[in-house]
Amino acid sequence: MPRRLRITLAYDGTDFHGWQVQPGLPTVQGTVEAVLSEIENAPVTIAGSGRTDAGVHALAQVASFDLTNPIPCENLRRAMNRLLPPSIRVSEAVEAAPDFHARLGAIAKTYEYRMYRHEVCPPFEHRYVWHHPYPLDTRAMAALARQFEGTRDFSLFAAADDRYTEGFDMARTIFSSELFDTGERLVYRVRGSGFLKHMVRNLMGTLIEAGRGNLPPDRWPVKCGHTVPARGLFLAGVEYP
């Protein structure tokens, strides 16, 4: 009888073409499925909490799948980490309810976007931040970030996607939207019910426009800023009931 399992993953997305399986291209989902299929000695398909784009990282992506192999969860975690490349690590593996689904069951996700502001970006940082050593009004950016909170149509901040057909609901609820300035870093942290394609990167690009003085910080923006690079974005956490 198959058992439903849930794993939490961290990964460096630099060398992957995103989460979702793509023929002939290295993806996080494809790499994890290959390892699980080796353990199961049969094909295994996993469901992730969401699709991260090419170059996007994760601190705590969640995935669910079925196994017939009776391997204990802790042994499964160890076996996966032995077989996976160092750029993907399994931090937790647990038994889940038979109807648990990593994407359909999620009630909130948190993303972080990280920017490095000093003139010289350390070589050990460049894969995980957007280097932007230019003047910005961070108070205006923080003020605009708060305008994103609430439930509204975020189609202005969504990239084109085949899923977004006529009638597709583009409304999302943002529970919190905050900018943190440590001097050398700017970190944008946003928690919401869900996110559209490129939405967080476009929200960050819009904050940049406010920081440059091109958008008022006290009202909903009438235009979207440029999509910022993927390397600064992290899926920081996924929540379930």
Q: Can you walk me through this structure?
A:
By secondary structure, the chain is an alpha+beta fold. It folds into two domains: 93 residues, 2-Layer Sandwich (Alpha-Beta Plaits), CATH 3.30.70.580; 132 residues, 2-Layer Sandwich (Alpha-Beta Plaits). The protein is 20% helix and 29% strand. It is built from four helices and ten strands. Strands 1, 2, 3, 4, 5, 6, 7, 8, 9 and 10 form a ten-stranded mixed β-sheet that branches. Helix 1 crosses helix 2 and helix 3 crosses helix 4. It is globular. The two termini are 26 Å apart.
Question: What features would you highlight for this structure?
Answer:
241 residues; Alpha-Beta Plaits; ten-stranded mixed beta sheet; 4 helices; globular
SSE inventory with pairings:
Elements: E1 3-11, H1 28-40, E2 47-48, E3 57-67, H2 73-83, E4 88-95, E5 108-116, E6 130-131, H3 138-147, E7 150-153, E8 171-181, E9 185-192, H4 199-211, E10 233-239
Parallel strand pairs: 3-10, 5-6
Antiparallel strand pairs: 1-3, 1-4, 2-3, 5-9, 5-10, 7-8, 8-9
Helix pairs in contact: 1-2, 3-4
